[in-house]
Amino acid sequence: MTRRLLLGYLTVALLVLLCLEVPLGIVYGRAEQQRATRAAEDEAESLAAYAAVSLESGRTSALEDRVAHCAERIGGEVVVFDASGGPVASSRPLTADQVRDLAGTREVRSALRGRAAIDVRTALVGGGARVLAAAAPVPFGSSRYGAVRVTLPTDAVRQRVHGVWLTLAAVGLVALTAVAGVAFWLARWTSRPVLELERATARLAEGNLSVRATLATSTGPPEVRRLAVTFNETAARLEHLLASQRAFAGEASHQLKTPLAALRLRLDNLEPDVAPSARGGLTAAVTETDRLARMVEGLLAMARLDEKAVTRVPVDLDRIAAERVQTWSPVYEARGCRLALGVEHSGQAFAVPGAVEQILDNLLSNALRVSGPGSVVLLDRRRPQPPRRGHREHRTHYAELHVIDEGPGMTAEQREHAFDRFWRAPGSTEGGSGLGLALVQRLAAAGGGHVVLETAARGGIDAVVRLPAVPSHGGPGPAPGRGDALRQRPTRRTAPVPRPRFKPHNGARP
Questions:
Q1: How far apart are CA 452 and CA 463, in angstroms?
Q2: Residue 256: other Cβ atoms inside 10 A
Q3: pTM value?
Q4: 472-485: b or e for each residue (b if 16 or more CB lie within 10 Å)?
Q5: β pairing state of 450-455 and 461-468
Q6: How far is CA 385 from the centre of its chain?
């Protein structure tokens, strides 16, 4: 920004200098040319009058002295012609060819015809020097005229004009230097608080709520200082609100766990004393208590997920998937379902420590809740290959985990709201807090990935978890970083995917 401001200031200053100095130099050059022309005219007229008097009285020697003295004084040449064009007096010796050439010039011919107007022009003479020539008629009676030709060198005029141009250029350079110094100071004064605000805004967007733009409040234009004060107030208020929210969620979750546990214990103790006709109400109360406990656990987990403290590390998705299948298989078998592990591999990916286990636990729990007896839930792993043509070198590659069930599935509108907090699918009969998918989404986003719900081949749900893959052969891949993707919304697709191949776990058949 400083460079752009400095360039802008210098451009404006240069345009102003050009608009001032160029016309001034042109006007001075023309004035010097006119001054030299008037001097040549005056010398020619003065010598013409003197030549007329001298030739009429026969004092040619005095005329020659006057011509030599005039030529020496002006640093040029003087030639006096009679009425026939022959030389009468000259400031330097002339050959016959030179006399003929000079007599044939336009200004001499005009003077020999007795024209009152003085013909002034610029001509090239010996050595190629640029001179200014002027001729005036010398009257010899009523109808015969001689001529006086005076030439002045224009080198002095040109040197003076060039000197003026050099002076103007030097003044312009000094002015530009001064403007550059002042402009650099102004640019730094203006850009430093803006750059600090930019850096502070970027850190705030990354989750650093304690950032403040302190320098911008004390330097820079008043508008920028007011903006910095407003930014600091906004950041402080945002930090306070989020801290209060986290504190409330954490404290409320902790405080609710103990009375919920006591309530569940009391309900269990009431079972022997409840009449058979009231057992349904007691079961419903226990179910709702369990759902409330799960909701409290979900709130506590989300409160612990501090966006500014998460760090991505490489994790082995294949190992974690195998462990979760081994852990959940007995639970599935107890419900009359099967849990299978896909035959493909996904390798390593970047994720928050412990996040993949929580993601799979929530997804497997949801799949079990909607699966009927005899159904199969597949935990599949994939690592899609990037396209060979037209792909960008630094494009992020993802490893995928799929949890595919054979439940009733969801409509496109339901999948759109599935990641909202406390949202539950219509018709849900069993307990659920409505926080599981929201927590899954945040955990995946904290690792730089995302979660989508797609329609499975058999009508159920294919929950797809995509995490940044660790490069297998040193290729481009994402570096571990902070959870800046927590605020990203996942992209939801509705196109069905083909049913993947899998092998049953522990000898189970699909």
A1: 6
A2: 17
A3: 0.45
A4: eeeeebbeeebbbb
A5: antiparallel
A6: 32
